[in-house]
Amino acid sequence: MNDRPVRFGLIGFGAWGQHHANAIQVTEGAELHAVAASSQKSADLAKEIYPQVDVYTNYLELIARDDLDFIDVVVPSYLHHEVATAVLRSNKHLLLEKPMGISLAECDEMIQVAEERDLIFSVGHELRLSSMWGKAKAMIDDGFIGDPLYALVELSRNPYRQGANGWRYDIERVGSWVLEEPIHFFDLARWYLQGNGNPSSVYASANSRQPGHPELQDNFSAIMHFEGGAYAVVSQTLAAFEHHQTIKITGTKGALWASWSGAMDRTRHPTFSLRAFDGEKVETVPIEKPTGELFELEDQIARMVDTLRKGTPLHCTGRDGRWSVAMCLAAGASIESGKPEPISVS
After folding, report:
1. What would the pLDDT profile of 295-346 be if each residue is shown by its tens digit?
2. To 5 degrees, how large is the angle CA 316–CA 319–CA 321?
3. Chain centroid to CA 143: how far?
4. Domain 130-288+324-342, CATH 3.30.360.10 — does that match?
5. d(CA 25, CA 299)
6. What is the pTM of this model?
7. How many angstroms separate the CA atoms of 311 and 302, rounded?
């Protein structure tokens, strides 16, 4: 591909979709050419903000165009499979928001279509691109803590936004609340501990503060074991305040402790720090670039551009996205059974 801008289409113009649109607009080498919105109100807003962009209320009209390189899909979880497979069958490269799907069968079909057509297919686990969470991964890979043995990924935050037409509070459409935010943390845990092989089993527990809705699991914790003997704890509560995330990783030589706090998740003014222990002394690791999902979203769009232009490896492939879904589905099964469950890879 030459150095012309990568032409993006965006499907979904809700609250998070609007952030995706902005990330495309501000990323060097990327251009937003078309938007598909789910309602006339959202379409009118897209036209107002981006008057130079073609706007549709039927995403099939957008993917029928032959002048788009990448389609960025930001729709409710239950629509991911339908929209993503349609995009891939139109022979366009795809960036798909997490969770990749709400079943492994959905994930498998998307992977198959992308591989058959030799298309770029990335899943939106943008935290892997964080200047801080990513720095922790680089330090692990460099052997700073020795062999990693344990990871804690923990979140305390405000309740979820309900989403368009309340879809996130409808279990039939969301699939599982474990597939919402905890999926990011299962992905990070697997990423940090990948030297221990694949995750093999998980034991999870959850409860709800919402009367009559035990399926809406505001409080959730899981212990996940790996083939090589390491384990991770993934925990969150949606019954707290603001947005506070912590990661602690220990190994045979040292430990890392990273923390991020903001008044809300989508802030450009967080506080954050990474502290490291090499077995003898503790130091604060400089983080030169601000971290937070709005910053990582821009980095994610830049990675799509570099993958298409230069062949830069994806930060998160479809197969990575499938693993994240598999871990979450096993955790959900464990909540129901009350016992450890194997993590299916077939």
Report:
1. 999 999 999 999 999 999 999 999 999 999 999 999 999 999 999 999 987 6
2. 55
3. 26
4. yes
5. 12
6. 0.95
7. 12
